Amino acid sequence: MKTNLSFYIFLPVYLTLLALLCFVAINTGSLEIDFYQIREAIFHYDASNKVHFVVANLRLPRIFTALVAGGSLALAGYLMQAMVNNPLADPYILGTASGASLGVNIAYLLAGSAVTLGIFSISAAAFIGAIGITMLAVFIAMKQGGLVPDRLLLTGIALSSMATAIISLLIYLSDNDNKLKSVVYWSLGSFEKSSWQQLLFPVFVLIAALLLFAFLSKHLNVMLMGEHRASSLGLNLATLRWYIMITASLLTASAVAMAGPLGFVGLMVPHIIRGIFGVHNKYNVTYTVLMGGVYLLACDILSRLLYPPVGIPPGIITSFLGVPFFVYLLSKKNYKFS
User: Fold this and answer.
1) Which of 98, 193, 207, 288 could bridge 160 with an S-S bond, Cβ 3.0-4.6 Å?
2) From CA 130, how far away is CA 248, in angstroms rounded?
3) How far is CA 324 from CA 144, 272, 300, in A?
């Protein structure tokens, strides 16, 4: 009853907040647009109209990119925290995002630019880097056939630093100004190059992951009780962990390929959701995806309001908000959910 009540309260509040943020996002920029123009651009699109073009091809794709990237990173963080039973886990701390960044940077430096590569090649490079670093971290963290969560966290941090060092070395050794410009611009995290075409694959991955783990939400809740208790209840931990690793890598890779590195989204949003709805709420997976999108959209709006009209990279905003939150979590004595 409490779960259903929280859902019916959350939904109208969320939709109101989303509509408000979307309206502000469309109106934030060098071109001021009123509500009538937005409606006309959506329902009576005229390709020769400058305002219609800006709304339909620049600002709406940017909004959807922020929503999808935020939802993907938040869900990846939620799954990883459940996998290691530690609220400090997220795609960046476990090295998954850094692996994706390394894959994209290598692809950029080999091919030259996003235009040359295409979004699917960038996503493939990001996924190879993400799954490679994640599997290496898991392999190192295995002990006597079992996964040691604390060891996985420390390994992830070390591998993340190694990936960052390799990226810095590649940038330092690059002798092509155009390649270097593409890498540096992408590394700051940005929604400037958002387009409808690049959203197809990330939307597919996010919907598939949401459906899969909404179905497996009870298994995730059992996993949060701890490894020994989950095993005693008959949960196949090894299989579920493989599902999580592959899904989290795909989610992180698709988000990083679209928008570049955006830290701490996967750390903060799952905590906010668990703080509001409890650790074992059956809708937590859905809430996390929805709230992650809204959080990143709000960060993007804030980045453009602080330094108009260009805006500062949203990755800087997420880091400024995320680091104090991470320090707060470190100050807590109990990291586990169970």
Assistant:
1) 98
2) 9
3) 36, 14, 19
Amino acid occupying residue 337? F
Residue holding tokens 């994706």?
100
pLDDT in tens, the chain (338 residues): 555 656 778 888 889 999 999 999 998 877 788 888 888 888 888 888 888 888 888 899 999 999 999 999 999 999 988 888 778 788 887 788 888 888 888 887 776 555 555 666 777 888 888 888 888 888 888 777 666 767 887 888 898 889 888 888 887 877 777 667 667 766 777 788 788 888 988 999 999 999 999 999 888 888 888 777 888 888 888 888 888 988 988 898 888 888 888 888 998 999 889 888 888 778 899 999 999 999 999 999 999 888 877 788 888 899 889 888 888 877 775 556 65
Extract the tokens encoding 327.
């320090």
> Two tokens at 71?
């939802």
Task: Classify residue 29 as exposed, middle or buried by CB count within 10 Å of its CB (0-12, 13-18, 19+).
Answer: middle
Residue 105 has which token pair?
Answer: 């940077």
- If you search the block for the tokens 């059956």, which residue do you land on? 282
Burial of 334 (0-12, 13-18, 19+ CB in 10 A): exposed
Tokens of 83: 């996998």
Q: Which tokens sit at 144?
A: 């006597």
> Model's pTM, two decimal places?
0.88
Task: Give the orientation angle of helix 149-173 with respect to helix 60-84, to 10 degrees.
Answer: 140
Nearest to 219 by CA among 200, 205, 238, 203: 238
Token code pair at residue 29: 């920029």
Tell me the Ramachandran region of residue 64: left when phi exceeds 0, alpha when psi lies from -120 to 50, beta otherwise.
Answer: alpha
Asked whether 258 and 69 are in contact (CB, 8 A), the reply is yes
Calpha distance 136→308 (Å, rounded): 42
